[in-house]
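Question:
When you can, review this sequence-structure pair and walk me through the tokens.
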Amino acid sequence: MTSNELRPYEEREFRIALPAHWEQVESPGPPVALIAVEPGDGAAFRANVVVTAEDVADGHQWQRIVGQALTDHLQDYLLLDEQPAGSGTRRLFHHVLPEAGAITAEQWAWTSGRRGFTVTASAATFDYDAKAELFASVAGRFRLREGAA
């Protein structure tokens, strides 16, 4: 199994493909629907993918709220790039975790009906370039299940 092989994952509202060798971690609850992390011994930051799903009243306003939440809650947040991605938005950003150091992340955010979904993929900044293609593959395979939203 190569490090870029993907395995399907299905949930009530969505389907996505995750790195085959990554493990799922129990979600803390809504709005977090899925957490997957790369294998590791806990000594360093482990790259991860987090999917959220939540109710939204207005899709455009929700997109702004998601962006503002990153600014408000992440230490040393720096937005590197933001652009439309299909019917949603893709953000590339940097932040710092006191216990882990510099982190680079990509987030894709979409709305469908009255639901908002994010796929956020994070890696230690020094490891981001090696993971960027994998992250794009994972996000590119995110699909809503029929009748979910």
